[in-house]
Amino acid sequence: MIPANVRDNFPILKQKMNGKPLIYLDSAATSQKPKRVIEALVRYYQEYNANVHRGIYRIAEEATQRYEASRAKVAAFINARRPEEVVFTRSTTEAINLVAYAWGRVNIREGDEIVLTEMEHHSNLVPWQLLAAEKRAKLKFIPFDSQGVLQLDEYERLLSERTKLVAFTHQSNVLGTINPVNEMARKAHAAGALVLVDGAQSAPHMPVDVQDLGVDFFALSAHKMCGPTGAGAIWARYEILDAMPPFHGGGEMIMLVQLDKTTYKDPPYKFEAGTPNIADCIVWADAIDYLQGIGMAAIREHEKQLTAYTLSQLSDVPGITIFGSRNLEHRGGVVSFELDGIHPHDVAQVLDQEGIAVRAGHHCAQPLHRRLGVAASTRASFYLYSTEQDVDALVRGLQVVRRVFSPKPAPVSGA
Ligand code: PMP
């Protein structure tokens, strides 16, 4: 159960927008931050701001100890075998680029194939396009059906001995679809390929166990799970990280530097060149403590119930088309829709006047929208602090949108 007073933990939710209470329905873009996370950031800068892995004075040691403790916390959160399997990055985007660059450049050769899906966020598409162009490799795409569910029979047909990697999102940021990771990973491994999962939308919203999922790489971002922006991670099995060359070169990732050559540290430090994002990586641990205090299973259950409520309430809005599956076992707290041909930007602008924050556009998933046959959609997305009252406000807001954009009656002649 989510505590009844959970919203009190989020100072931003007390704000008014256009004189109305802020209804924040854009948590898939970024989550709001609880007070303890905001305070932990201030505490870092006020009490122990120092560079990590360098100084031998007290505050530098404290910063280093907390930075490494946060790595261990992220590792435990996703059930990694050891903290060294977690490399801090700036974000999910950087995590995937790290794999495409460091792993991809030595493991992908001409004629090799990488299997993706048609529902990927651009951050799990463009890095592979760049790699494929450089290596003359081929990208193949698993289609999804009218319910927004991946067509696994097609997936099996795409796999071959040429497949080197299968990379897909755990939960779609547009359709909400939760993909069957275990089954997909088993099939990829049987074909001899490795598996990368984009966990940007799953790690914040459900229990995640990378060992149980049976994957090889898992990417996530702190800012979507009550943590600060600018911190993320790539998890990979240690042997894979150990065999990979570095991503960036620079300070702190080296053992010995000579003018003509360098030897590198072991993972994860080999992949963390330069001064990392110390404050935000440290404070990510506070966000995880906060989420675990509530419980990831409780968060998933709350969002499931809220999504069921939203689907039923929105279905009554005239002229609405809701994308994605109605099966809540395989759907997270993201509801994208189209309203009567009214442009999503117009929908979002009118909702903003009502104090309601939703996302409008292609949500960094242009091919997905093309497949749906629309250029853009409006998206409401939830988190632990979202409520049925938020959804009721959205439904009322959409009625205002329809009034504003409904065709005006023609003037009666002679009147
Ligand atoms: N993948 C998915 C499914 C996402 O929703 C997002 C964020 N919208 C990303 C990747 C990229 O995350 P970030 O912007 O934190 O790098």
Describe the structure.
This protein is an alpha/beta fold and 415 residues long. It folds into two domains: 6-32 and 296-404, Aspartate Aminotransferase, domain 1 (Alpha-Beta Complex); 37-292, 3-Layer(aba) Sandwich (Aspartate Aminotransferase, domain 2). It contains 13 helices and 17 strands. The chain has helices at 35-47, 58-77, 92-107, 126-135, 152-158, 181-190, 210-213, 238-243, 278-294, 296-315, 344-353, 366-372, 388-405, and strands at 16-17, 20-21, 23-24, 86-89, 113-117, 138-142, 163-169, 194-198, 217-221, 232-236, 254-257, 262-264, 320-322, 334-339, 356-357, 359-361, 377-381. The strands form five sheets. It has a seven-stranded mixed sheet with strand order 4-10-9-8-7-5-6, sandwiched between helices. The protein has a four-stranded antiparallel sheet with strand order 13-14-17-16, with helices on one face. It has a two-stranded antiparallel sheet with strand order 1-2. The longest helix has 20 residues, at 58-77. The model has no long low-confidence stretch (mean pLDDT 96). The structure holds 4'-deoxy-4'-aminopyridoxal-5'-phosphate. The site of 4'-deoxy-4'-aminopyridoxal-5'-phosphate (PMP) has 16 residues, from α3.
